[in-house]
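Structure (tokenized):
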């Protein structure tokens, strides 16, 4: 049941992204939590209003991995809601490319990530709430395709 609803949610977000035109971004460094696969600490640094770096220092509950680190370069698109300055916030979609290192049974796994998600940027407080789904192509020790998916929240320090 969860997988069916999750797929519907992602489909609705993807279709909605086709009908939007504006973007708003937080400034500086955001720090918070990410829950899902993986779960842990999330950080994000905005380079400009459309581009950012994010990373997580997390634990994977799916495959008994005690620790995982990933980092991504993200490009943000148009906002799915709110086109005027008096809106309560923005909801841009984003996609990117990055890498992941994790340890499973004392063996290092290296992979390439391609995250896709949305982030709700509140206009009155320096906070964003995000959700993403990410295919991961592990390239070492063996080639394997995995998926990450998580929700999170970050507070921005200026």
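Design, position by position:
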């Amino acid at each position: 049941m969860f997988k069916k609803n999750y797929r519907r949610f992602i489909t609705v977000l993807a279709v909605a992204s086709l009908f939007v035109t504006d973007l708003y971004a937080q400034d500086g460094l955001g720090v918070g939590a990410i829950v899902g696969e993986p779960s842990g600490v999330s950080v994000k640094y905005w380079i400009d209003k459309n581009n950012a770096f994010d990373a997580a220092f997390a634990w994977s509950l799916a495959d008994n991995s005690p620790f995982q680190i990933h980092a991504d370069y993200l490009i943000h698109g148009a906002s799915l809601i709110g086109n005027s300055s008096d809106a309560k916030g923005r909801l841009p979609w984003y996609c990117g490319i990055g890498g992941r290192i994790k340890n499973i049974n004392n063996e290092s796994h290296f992979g390439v990530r391609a995250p896709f998600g949305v982030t709700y940027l509140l206009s009155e407080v320096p906070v964003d709430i995000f959700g993403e789904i990410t295919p991961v192509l592990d390239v070492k020790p063996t080639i394997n395709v995995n998926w990450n998916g998580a929700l999170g929240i970050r507070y921005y320090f200026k």
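Reviewer-requested clarification: The longest strand covers residues 65-79. Residues 34 and 50 are 21 Å apart (CA to CA).
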